[in-house]
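Let's do one together. I've listed all components of the complex below, 782 residues spread over two lines.
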Amino acid sequence: MSGRTGAVGVLLLLLLLLTGCWDLREMNHLALVMAVGVDKAEEPGRLAVTVQIARPAGTGQSPGGGGKQDTAGGQVYIATADGDTIFGAIRNLAQFTSRRIMWAHNNVVVIGESLAREDITPVIDFFTRNQELRMRTWVVVASGTDARSIVATHTGMEDIPANSISALFRYAQLPGETVPTDMAMITADFFGSDRNPVIAGIGLRERAVRSTGDPENPQLIEQVELAGTAILNGTRVVGFVQRETGRGLLWLRRQMKNAVLTIPCPQGREGNMAVEIRSPQVRIQSSVEGRVPVMTFHVETEGWLSEQGCLTPNLRESALKAYAEKALAQKIEREMRMTLQVLQQELKTDAIGYARMVHIQHPGWWLRNQTRWEALFPMVKTQILISTHIPKMGLYIEPVQVRRPGGSDSEQ
Amino acid sequence: MSNSRVRISPGQLLAILACLTYGKSIGYTNGVLARNVAQDAWIAISLAFLSGLVLLWAVVWLARRFADQTPATYIPRLLGRPLGSLVMLLLALFFLGSFITSAVTIEQHINDYLLTETPLVVFVIGYTLLTVYGVYLGIEVAGRLAALGLTCAALLNFSMGIGAMDKLDVTRLLPVLDHPLPRIMGATLQAQHDVLMAVVGALLLFPLARKPERWLRSGAWALGLGAVLILTWTIFEIGVLSPEVTAQYLISCMQMARASELSIYLHRYELVMVILFVYSVITQSVVCLFGACELTAAALPWRVPRGWMVLGLGILSMVPQYYLAYDRDRYRAFLAIPLPWAALALGMGVPLLLCLVALFRRKLTGVSRT
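Okay, and this is what the predicted structure of the assembly comes out as:
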């Protein structure tokens, strides 16, 4: 019995340890950062940090319409401060915010375009050196705007705008034009030597519509949208690829998962058809017979014919599929070549990872030529072999044909 | 050995030896190796484990030659009292050093990633006292803790793997043998300490384990299991983070944990990692401190009560623990050069010396229990 009493006494004493001492952090003393933006400050050499902080008292309310510029009201609190360093700017936030900044729940790091075009090193360094941030945090470059505007915009359908931005990347594979980049992916390329990093781009565009009572003049509100992918050469952004070239980059980096491609209708008819890319597989082989390596892409993909915006009289299903498969392959190759043109001739940046492929497949050649790679990359030849298969036309089993007499299909 | 009646089962032996290889290795060794041979780190670790298997075979041979005798008994018989005491002190130094690195492992993990404001000295004192208590409870308790530690380590590997599988890029592990073989062989030195902890631990624990005929099998399984558990981390750290990022961090496994995400609802994986990781590290620490105490007690010419010996060595170890853990760069330098060489000299040199002497002084050896 005395032993049991002693054990209970020890346990009660141990309770004292649960109060916490040095690392005590009360929830109501914390400012949970949901998104952070880093820009060049107006004063040269300084950095501006803008944070979007969740306001617990404000969450759960109606979003109140998109596009609202949150400051001190609503679900989030937006604050900005500048400093000589990011850390200094964050410390300066403490001069007027009532809570201690906590990064653990941050969803997205936004880098202003002007800063990104200069050097992203401070951002990568600070957020990977800090133990609170996750490596799965999305990192984006504000395309055509500053990070502060992105962070301050109330966008999407979520209470907290940062959650809406985060969801854009979780489902970025659907439009398939942007490489969704998180801190883990960027740091791997940033610290590595055989592929230049890329960072997803986002921008502001009038997308949401708010009724004003006048049906002819609805109010258009800026929303955050995916805006291609920023290409870095070393530590700075040198350009963007968007839409077709954005998709081309995904194919070239073997990160394409899903996309909708538009191909023209067959038989020279007006209109387009939409093909949804499914289960794409991309392999790269390299050869170094001459002075410069030759890369060969083997692309295999399925496509579902999801939309046909024209009638196709007298066209059998097999003929339509054959046409669509060929047109799809041509479309994919064209997009890949457009991106190659941009990367090799305009930006001269190996964001594909050709260097890594050559290093893996021809280590001896790589050892002799790695120091000349920057000069060799624009000269690398690329072959693209594409195999497409369309097993499904949505729920239809026949091409669209109108059979009634006198219909627009009446020439049959 | 003061507690010679205590016996551990072959399963417990296996679990202890596997745990001895695990904790420090996934925390630090992968980073050290990535700094040396980048994506070829897994080859260096595999070679270290293969060499460990050969040494394990020699240790089993030695232990069987001396039947029920413990190292504290047969080392003085083999080498004579003065030299035997010196050799036992050297082995004790190996175990004490291993305990210190093991303790620093957990202290830095918690201090760098979870409780960053808490003074390091709190972890040093707290963890040392916890380990001292573990040693006081005895090796059989450590055996049971090891079973839990091994299970948690397997769970940790599994959960980390599924949380990071979508980020695994096998091309980062290529090309294989990108570095010259001699350099990779040289880099195995960095992984030897983890393997030698298990092999020298086996030397200490075999006499306490039942069924001598299963010593070799248990030991080999433990090394195999340890290798699989560690290589999983090596492959994921390099395949997910890249060799360059793995090399950038002192505690590369926590960086890996930061990149692992068990769904969007359990995105903070660091705490899960430490919870599942800590049992195997405590086992490692307890067994190492136990070895240091037993061999020091046997080497000293006067008798020291077991409790005082454990407490004394524990308190003594706090100074180097703090010294190494406080300055991260100092610890990185310690892991890179002094530790592997000292571990090789003591952990491989002493058992081989004992085997060699046993080979030439066959009359001294007892009848094998097998």
